[in-house]
Amino acid sequence: MPGKLKPIRIFGYREGDVWQAYCIDFNLAAQADTAEDVRSVMLEMVKTYVDDALEGQDKAHADVFLNRKAPLSIRLKYYWVLAKHAVYQLRRKLDFAFTDMLDIDTLQNNHRPA
């Protein structure tokens, strides 16, 4: 049975020849050549970040790391992209935004000593 699910808000857009993605819930950023690649890179980055926060040398401060928001300007851009998505029903060449569910409790349980 899944544990506590946390929505993870990520958005991306093309700037020149590069796609950029941001996770506004953990203040993470990534770049890649395609929208699919940057989405994949960002999801892996988020999973690694959460894993490190829960099991890294600073795991005593996991609550701080798991509640680290992006600056207001980045969060506002997320909502702008989300609004554009709703209005224009984004085409592949435009920006994207999505929310993914991350099971924090299961990740924590996987790293607890038996």
Question: What is the compact description of this entry?
Answer:
By secondary structure, the protein is an alpha+beta fold. It has four helices and four strands.
Which terms would index this structure?
alpha+beta; 4-stranded antiparallel beta sheet; 43% helix
Structure, explained:
With 114 residues, the protein is of the alpha+beta class. The chain has one domain. Helix content is 43%, strand content 26%. It has four helices and four strands, in the order E-E-E-H-H-H-E-H. It has a four-stranded antiparallel beta sheet with strand order 3-2-1-4. A hairpin with a 4-residue loop joins strand 2 (18-23) and strand 3 (28-32). The model has no long low-confidence stretch (mean pLDDT 86).
Please outline the major beta sheet.
4 strands, antiparallel
The oligomeric status of these chains comes to single chain
Instruction: Note the total helix count.
Output: 4
What is the rounded Rg? 15 Å
Number of strands: 4
The SSE string, one letter per element, is: EEEHHHEH
Give the N-terminus to C-terminus distance in angstroms: 19 Å
Low-confidence segments, ≥5 residues, pLDDT <50?
A: none
Give the spatial strand order of the biggest sheet: 3-2-1-4
User: Shape from CA axes?
Assistant: elongated
Our count of domains comes out at 1
